[in-house]
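Chapter summary example.
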Amino acid sequence: MSNTFERPKPVLMIPIRRCGSHALRLRLNFSPEFYSPYPLHLVDFMPLLELYENLADDSTYFQLVIDLVGLQNATMVKWENVALDPVAIFESIKDRPRSLHTVAWEMLFQAGKKHGAKVVMDKSLDNVYYAEELIDLFEDMKFLNVVRDPRAQINSINRAIIHDFDTLLNAITWVNAHNTAIALADKYPERVLTIRYEDFLTHQEAVLRQICQFLEIEFLDSMLDVSKSTEAQEISVLSALWSTNTSPPILANIDKFKQNLTDSEIEIIETVTKPIMDYYGYEPITKAGAQVTEEMLEVAQELNSIKRPKAWMDLREKDLRDYQLRKFRSDYLNMVKQKLLPD
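The structure predicted for these 343 residues follows.
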């Protein structure tokens, strides 16, 4: 690509949310060389892509640009001091390989340039499944692979509104994401830095220095005091999921899953994730011998379909602001879908 050195270098954080990703992103953002805004989470937009049909058509591709800029405007956290111009984005990429990722990364590149950054990072962790496409688009693409104890992470996912509402289903999702990340790291070891979130909790400075070296940015002492992050202060009041982002690493969170998960849930997680737990050095506390059957999966999926609307109702009751912001984004995606559907 001819403009490799005219834009910031791209980094994608992988492979699945609720891994402590905001804690890392907010600290790295203290560097003037680095820029990582709240992510677009394109995984939610992917089902709409086929409705655009022919991206070779300029008007269709420009519409995709407009809709993705609209998605950024509909997201829970706006990109500070950035007003994206769909025309400028389209003109910059119209002669490059056309894809959803080309558009989304150009948005991030232009925002990063406005902040004077030499490295930009997308925290859309689910995009791990599109890593090969990203490498084809950007030969300098890197990946920050953040691993967290699956028991703690799945406990967190269970209580969020972003994946499923069942321990077994989320354990399977966790395994699929990490298997993809491990395969990526094996194939492109020079492109992937893997860190364990627990190591960050216990050795914050050392891990941040390791990440900065990988990203080729300078480590700053200010990264160790996230309480001075304006963005951390702002997002902490938008959702209960982010309420601790203004705090130092909380070591007690390492074993918090023991308070919320039953013994049988812990054994299910350890059974499903055991090869990866072994790979990353996490010790089981059960025999990890649960029997996972097709019938269990069917029951889990049925219960999940019941729990989903209830979870949205609960969120509305407990945190109306969070509910309204997420609902606005959901409504925007539905509006785009309805607009694209044939008459």
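To summarize the output: The chain has one domain: 4-340.
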